[in-house]
């Protein structure tokens, strides 16, 4: 009675270890192979019994042993007895003949009339080597397959096989291999989908939709222990990156904010400078620094990351933005449908369109905002008739603080943050920003967003 608790404890430890092993991919693969062996053994044995009972096909080994045994009887028999023995042996099928040894010169190892399936079976599942017929297992005479055994130095006993047959032994072995192969493929396919493919697709989908903002874990921690470990590591990496970015953003915000006070004092002191030329120069530099701080703070704001997507009218938002620029005297026109409802972040996307329109009116005189739906995507083109951007710079202009000075010589241009903000907003919408040439001149800023219908 006292040994029961110890046995229960040992059983519990063993069960825990088995449970941990099964939760790993290595343990699951082992379990799949073990299950495959059991299923193949049960089904294969049943199928083999059915083949032996229901399908009467030639057994090459048995037939070779039969021919060899009769040949040994012929070796010790007289010529008259041989005729009697041959007649008795041919009582059922009449396929045995006595041939001179020179008959073997007609033997070949292949036949043009042999079924392709039989060739494959002989190559993959050759008969066992006991007893081997005279000339080998694959012996043909005049295109007909035969089994031969040597009676004496002058005589061969030859058995002619049916024109078309399927070896019973090959069928039995082939059925076992087929059952094992099919079972292994099915079980491993199910295992791969359940334990590998689905979790990896889930992680990949979460990674594509993820952002670096602080928040709950984005990768679901379920599945095998390896998948859980991977998801946990990715969640930890996301938290570390988010913390690092948030800390640096807070530091830059603090620096930008703290610079505003001394900058205000500089402006007040510059206004008291007596010489007008020096005063205007100082105020111009201070104003430029102030605009740099404002754009930097605007870039560091991550409102577009925290804003929640909602169903709204994209066409109405674009028309409103164009009307606001038109009310300020700019030639900005909207071209597109009157209504297009989809999921997006209204404030963030409005900011992106506004930045693109501001860039367009700085360097062009006429701006067109075009909206259309193509293949499940909303395409927004903001076109201007300005100088455009050289092709070699169209990727770099999306980087913060990069400007194409050779193409954009206006002194009122910003600090290279507008397109960077637009690129981040579009990326947060899982979209794409492309800069293209406009004919005959100008630039087309194309936004491609996934279009989700109700």
UniProtKB/TrEMBL annotation:
InterPro entries in UniProt: 2C_sensor_his_kinase, HAMP_dom, HATPase_C_sf, HATPase_dom, His_kinase_dom, HisK_dim/P_dom, HisK_dim/P_sf, Sig_transdc_His_kin-like_C
SUPFAM superfamilies, per the entry: ATPase domain of HSP90 chaperone/DNA topoisomerase II/histidine kinase, Homodimeric domain of signal transducing histidine kinase
Entry's Gene Ontology cellular component terms: plasma membrane
Enzyme Commission identifier(s): 2.7.13.3
Chain ranges of the HAMP domain: 194-246
The keyword rRNA-binding belongs to this UniProt entry's keyword annotation: no
Main location: membrane
Protein name per its UniProtKB record: histidine kinase
Taxonomic lineage of the native organism: Bacteria, Pseudomonadati, Pseudomonadota, Alphaproteobacteria, Hyphomicrobiales
């Amino acid at each position: 009675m006292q040994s029961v608790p110890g046995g229960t404890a040992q059983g519990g430890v063993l069960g825990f270890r088995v449970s941990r092993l099964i939760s790993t991919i290595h343990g699951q693969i082992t379990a799949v192979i073990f299950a495959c062996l059991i299923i193949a053994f049960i089904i294969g044995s049943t199928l083999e019994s059915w083949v032996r009972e229901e399908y009467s096909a030639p057994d090459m080994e048995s037939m070779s042993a039969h021919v060899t045994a009769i040949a040994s009887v012929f070796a010790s028999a007289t010529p008259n007895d041989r005729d009697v023995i041959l007649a008795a042996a041919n009582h059922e099928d009449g396929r045995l003949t006595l041939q001179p040894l020179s008959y073997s010169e007609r033997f070949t190892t292949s036949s043009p009339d042999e079924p392709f399936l039989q060739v494959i079976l002989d190559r993959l599942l050759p008969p066992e080597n006991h007893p081997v017929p005279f000339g080998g297992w694959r012996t043909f005479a005049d295109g007909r397959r035969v089994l031969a055994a040597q009676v004496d130095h002058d005589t061969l006993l030859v058995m002619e096989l049916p024109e078309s047959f399927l070896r019973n032994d090959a069928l039995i072995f082939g059925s076992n291999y087929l059952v094992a192969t099919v079972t292994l493929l099915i079980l491993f396919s199910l295992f791969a989908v359940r334990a590998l493919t689905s979790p990896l697709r889930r992680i990949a989908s979460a990674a594509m939709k993820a952002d670096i903002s602080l928040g709950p874990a984005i990768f679901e921690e379920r599945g095998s222990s390896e998948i859980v470990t991977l998801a946990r590591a990715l969640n930890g990496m996301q938290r570390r990156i988010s913390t690092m970015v948030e800390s640096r953003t807070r530091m830059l915000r603090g620096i930008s904010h703290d610079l505003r006070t001394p900058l205000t004092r500089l402006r007040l002191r510059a206004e008291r400078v007596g010489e007008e030329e020096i005063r205007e120069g100082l105020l111009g530099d201070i104003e430029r620094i102030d605009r740099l701080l404002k754009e930097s703070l605007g870039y560091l704001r991550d409102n577009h990351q925290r804003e929640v997507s909602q169903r709204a009218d994209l066409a109405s938002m674009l028309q409103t933005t164009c009307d606001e620029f038109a009310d300020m005297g700019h030639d900005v026109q909207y071209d597109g449908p009157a209504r297009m409802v989809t999921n997006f972040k209204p404030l963030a996307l409005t900011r992106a369109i506004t930045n693109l329109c501001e860039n367009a009116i700085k360097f062009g005189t006429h701006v067109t905002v075009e909206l259309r739906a193509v293949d499940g995507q909303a395409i927004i083109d903001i076109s201007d008739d300005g100088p455009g951007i050289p092709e070699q710079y169209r990727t770099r202009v999306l980087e913060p603080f990069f400007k194409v000075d050779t193409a954009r010589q206006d002194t009122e241009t910003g600090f290279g943050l507008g397109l960077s903000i637009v690129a981040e907003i579009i990326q947060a919408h899982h979209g794409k920003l492309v800069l293209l040439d406009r004919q005959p001149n100008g630039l087309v800023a194309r936004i491609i967003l996934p279009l989700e219908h109700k």
